[in-house]
Amino acid sequence: xxxxxxxxxxxxxxxxxxxxxxxxxxxxxxxxxxxxxxxxxxxxxxxxxxxxxxxxxxxxxxxxxxxxxxxxx
Length: 73
Prior knowledge:
By secondary structure, the protein is an alpha+beta fold. The chain is 23% helix and 27% strand. The chain has two helices and four strands, in the order ββαββα.
């Protein structure tokens, strides 16, 4: 898990399964952009799920606005 800004972290699927750790960091919202990763704790966190594939051909531009708006909440 990498702290990008005081309120913004970047993590992998393995980290998304650690509810207590996420909660201890004050995380309340999770932007899930992995096609094959489920939202593990919907009763504990607010999620935005954008199913993207780790592929050079994946068009990311159409998802930027919704992702940025979610992070800004």
